[in-house]
């Protein structure tokens, strides 16, 4: 019996605790984690490793005497003269901040065309282009003889970073089995943290190479860039993209290979439904749909979380950890401290990998936000008490305590706000808005990264320990934001519109969505009933089912 108007057949049901669990076709998904899909995700996640390498390499290079002497002689004079100076201001230089931050400005600029490219020419070709940007940027930086060449090279790296950030999380989300999507999407952040640690280890070694050690550090980004370029040529295209472009048989064949089974009808039907809608949507209409009342909650949450991620202060710490420790403690082991922070980042990200599909996204974001806030407040108090008038460094004990607190901050970020922002940004968008939505996420994230990277050393010089209080305040704001406005999204299939249903049932977002939210719930009830009817009649005819949906 077919569903009729007015029938109460919800796609999503409520758990006993009031939470929402998926319904509809998801219980008929038969795919599982395969070695093939893991390899595909690992190769594509190389884009995250490049991202992390280019974040982590810059702070250590800036702390090298040969680099300072060639590009920033004023800073070199201050660090080698032995003249007493305010340690908070030792590395304060707007050109140094520009070198660190320009990558994110160019990444934000490329985000919109990168999202367009991912939708028009495909995910894998766009990944290949990002790898080429990385190769070119690394070569220009390694061979730079003046600051202009250095900044141009880093800007081109930013094009690679922005392109990879737009396409890699989307690609991984689309090839991953829905029950393991959170863990596989974490690979982008895992690769990012591994890249950061690799960069810090490289810097620790190249600091002992006089004159050209910094060139080796900057040029080594070409190695993972080559993997991304070649990987983009051999990886399979996303089934969602192929089906959206009308290549149904090829899309289904790749889906079967990714899932390790021929029984993919339920998931294939969900992708076809989403693709039929996406195929009717122009690129301009995709942006209009992104801010429609039906999709506005997902757009607001994904973009706001992306901006909040940078307001944690994480990139400021990763960028400037070596120069900050050299300024505050006068320690010759500043680069080793950065390695300790990088190792903490990697280990903690793996902890999050184990928890994201068990505990869920929302609890980790709340816990991580509170841990980061507490660590930053404690760091501010420690620095305020450790410094005295006319002192230029702090004692070894407080310096070690400061390192421990920063590691606690990094750990809280690494298992929560670091990866989950990218997971949510890719998974909660509908297929017709996914690439444009991810472009908005990247643009918001990178614009804030640029602002903070360009201003952190100035803030440290003027606000001193108050800089950490500033970021602690933002951690409180974003934790409250998640507590009241983000529903749990664990175990929701990516091609299902159950995400819209989650927000349509939310006490705040339901008011924003209005009639469109109620229409989503009603339509999905009909679709769920139709699928059950088709499955009940000897498996049904998927083509007839798709035709039935189009007539709704």
UniProtKB/TrEMBL annotation:
- Family recorded in the similarity comment: Belongs to the major facilitator superfamily. Sugar transporter (TC 2.A.1.1) family.
A GO molecular-function descriptor: symporter activity
**Places the protein is found:** Membrane
List the membrane topology term(s).
Multi-pass membrane protein
Secretion signal span: none
* Membrane-spanning segments: 35-58, 96-114, 150-172, 184-202, 214-235, 298-322, 334-356, 368-386, 398-425, 437-457, 463-486
Q: What is this protein called?
A: Major facilitator superfamily (MFS) profile domain-containing protein
